Fold these 2 entries.
Entry 1:
Amino acid sequence: MTNKTVLITGASGGFGKTFTKVFLQAGYHVIATIRQENKIQEVLSGLSEQDRTNLTLLFLDVSHDQSVAQFQTALNAFQRIDVLINNAGFAVAGFAEELTVEEYKLQFETNFFGVIRVTNAVLPFMRKQGSGRIINISSISGLVGFPALSPYVSSKYALEGYSESLRLEVKDFGIDVVLLEPGSFQTNIWTSGTHLSQNAGSDISPYKSMFTTINNRMLAERSSYGDPSEVGFLALKIAEAKGNPSLRYTVGKGVTFMLTLKRLIPWKTWERMVLKQLQKP
Ligand SMILES: NC(=O)c1ccc[n+]([C@@H]2O[C@H](COP(=O)([O-])OP(=O)(O)OC[C@H]3O[C@@H](n4cnc5c(N)ncnc54)[C@H](OP(=O)(O)O)[C@@H]3O)[C@@H](O)[C@H]2O)c1
């Protein structure tokens, strides 16, 4: 048993639900946040009676100032927050030319500004207690640009820059900021968690053929995506790591190879390889 508390955003499914389970089983008190009442059963399912007694469920939509303000008031009931996992996120997909600025803003309100809202609500706790660990769930998309995903990729690149700066600002308060960067895993993000731009894949779109190739590829590869529990256990390992944790932790099939290749070969070679893949039917 530990007397530590972890706060997890976006706990209704996917990684968030997995983090909740893994940290409860490790003896943490878990504050899990969801944004819809009808998801309560989803979070509770599969948890033992003992686990449930260590769980607090709070409502939070990270994209809304008012929701975060209410949540911040509810947080005052807690003495300390040892670990924050900024997990809530979704994907806006489509081709840049066919996306509106509003769609980019929609993406950033959750994946980027949402992280800032929640982090600013939690930092006073961590500064006061003189310790804390913030794990920001980024992505391989925060390190590599993919076509048809520019809003998502941009939001994760922004999260990477924000986290690097924040890490340097809060180190002296005993707070560690860490980026966890998964590849592709079997959660809901690539189905119900995706907002697709209106024209994507339509007959009038000049990007129809690229859309079809990417879509077919995703459908063919989805069953080989990783098991979210791998990311869950890595988050626990980061939370428990003694001393000074690394800034970045990558996880997922082929991720290390892809990042090494991107780092070592000239951009023009990389670009040729990616575009060749996109020409396949
Ligand atoms: N799965 C992957 O392959 C992968 C890879 C790299 C990074 N990631 C990242 O992992 C994180 C979790 O995603 P996931 O893959 O677990 O997807 P998921 O299964 O779709 O879960 C996303 C979670 O975020 C919540 N959420 C979305 N918008 C929110 C908002 N505005 N306020 C509060 N909660 C919100 C969802 O709540 P609702 O149920 O209410 O929609 C859900 O609980 C995301 O940051 C994602 O970018 C995923």
Entry 2:
Amino acid sequence: MAAAAAIGEGKGKERVCVTGAGGFAASWVVKLLLNNGYIVHGTVRDPSDESKNAHLKKLENALENLQLFKADLLDYNSVASAIAGCEGVFHVASPVPASKVPNPEEEMLKPAVDGTLNVLKACAEAKVRRVVVVSSCAAVRANPNWPKGKIMDENCWSDKDYCTDTENWYRLSKTLAESEALDFGEKNGLDVVTICPCLIIGPLLQSTVNASSSLLINLLKGASETVENKAHHIVDVRDVASALLLVYEKPEASGRYLCVSHRIKTCDLIDMIKRMYPNYNYPTNIVEVDDDEVTISSEKLQKLGWKFRPLEETLRDSVEYYKAAGLLE
Ligand SMILES: NC(=O)c1ccc[n+]([C@@H]2O[C@H](COP(=O)([O-])OP(=O)(O)OC[C@H]3O[C@@H](n4cnc5c(N)ncnc54)[C@H](OP(=O)(O)O)[C@@H]3O)[C@@H](O)[C@H]2O)c1
């Protein structure tokens, strides 16, 4: 992985904080930081929950350089204690529900938006050098006014009213959190950089299955016989981690970065996995839909030096992990 090999070099023992450290993407960020000589403060909601945290303690260099802090995004003091003394922060934590939640305001919007503001206030208080906030393509692509056929770049924002009208609370939570984060940075002289990954897949470090991984697992298990042939934008979780470290370490990084590697339609995705693993129970009925044919570009991130791996490698490593973990039975 060229980007990961090039970053982190020459770093001393810099202290950084990763929020939601036990999650799918954050675990790979913690691993990459520990491999690159950082001292990491990881926030977790329940340090005694081994199912969510045990894997972190087993990471290389964790014994010496990883310290877990109990913190909830909505509890300012807990967040501030974890961030105190850090030079940098990777704010990854945010609710990513696998299905509809009964109370989106309390369960999604508040933790995403108020939680992000708590993190940023604590960063300002601790005089952190740079904060990298993980947003999402959910904050980009829900924009009915973007010209049809025009490649989506960092100038494209999801329309908040459209997200509300369509009751897409996840998209609304990420759009509000990211725009308020950039706004907070500008108003308070805090260096805030945001990253918007698309659908993240790849091998898991944690023992519980997160929402985006379950999408691929369900496809392999033929959980639904009928699927829509729509375009997916995919990025490997390890390439997301390297993107976060890249924008943290490159002094010239600024503003917003879309983080997308591959665009592939459901049909082609199934064909690609089938060629490697012919014997799974793939969906049999693929229906054509009126797809909006959106294309999202990561040119800005690539110009900064970001590299990503081929989709075949991501799929193979994911399936091998799922097999070994018994997730496909
Ligand atoms: N996966 C994707 O396809 C994708 C795509 C684009 C962007 N993203 C973004 O990437 C980030 C990580 O997502 P992921 O896929 O790694 O999801 P994940 O595995 O579900 O991780 C989410 C993390 O957020 C933490 N969290 C949620 N609410 C919290 C709260 N109130 N206080 C403290 N921590 C809280 C969770 O802690 P607990 O373990 O205690 O629940 C968990 O560690 C999120 O910001 C997400 O929006 C994900």
